[in-house]
Amino acid sequence: MLIAGTMMQTTANAMGCDMESPHSVNSPRRTLSLSKQRRATRSFFDDKTSGFGFSGDHGPKPSEVYGFVGSITTVVATVIFLVWAYVPESWLQSVGISYYPSRYWALAVPTYVMVTIALVLGLYIGLNFISTPPPTSLNTVFDEFSKDPLSLDSSLEEDEKPIEPISDIGIDRINDIMFNNAA
């Protein structure tokens, strides 16, 4: 019995486990260090690695695949659009392409898209102007989140005064700082 216990202790110490504390194996720090040790012993010539371009054992990330497919699709769609817009009809029919949209849409769709973008930007700016209070409104100076400065005990010395809490600076003090001390 003593020999079996000593062998288990030796095996546990060789694996880096502490047998006296049963919670050490289940702690997050211990799990992280064990995973780092396993990762550090991995060879570049393992049979488990899946090859070039794959992240770990789980294959490529979905965002990488979507980005690659999206970029290839964009290039192919641009080439098809430019061929359709600039190649004469006789050349397209000689290749065997006989059904395609009218050439009117080669100019109309980009124009509609640009006009739509310009209108959306104009509408966005207009809505911002509508939702902004006028300069004469007190809502530009005070709102429900305004905090008045607290008056602290002035009998304390400069070194002993606590840091003032965050508060808004009054418009009268800002005007005084900006315009009376400008000379």
Automatic annotation (TrEMBL):
| Keywords from the UniProt entry | Membrane, Transmembrane, Transmembrane helix
| Location relative to the cell | Membrane
Which Gene Ontology CC terms are recorded? membrane
What InterPro entries does the entry give? PIG-P (IPR013717)
| Keyword Transmembrane helix recorded | yes
Q: Where are the transmembrane segments?
A: 65-87, 107-127
Q: Where does the record place the PIG-P domain?
A: 63-179
Source species, domain of life: Eukaryota
Q: Which residues form the signal peptide?
A: none
Pfam families from the entry? PIG-P (PF08510)
- Indicate how the chain sits in the lipid bilayer: Multi-pass membrane protein
Q: Does Transmembrane appear among the keywords? A: yes
PANTHER family referenced in this protein's UniProt entry, alphabetically: PHOSPHATIDYLINOSITOL N-ACETYLGLUCOSAMINYLTRANSFERASE SUBUNIT P-RELATED
Task: Please give the name of this protein.
Answer: PIG-P domain-containing protein
The organism named in the record is Clitoria ternatea
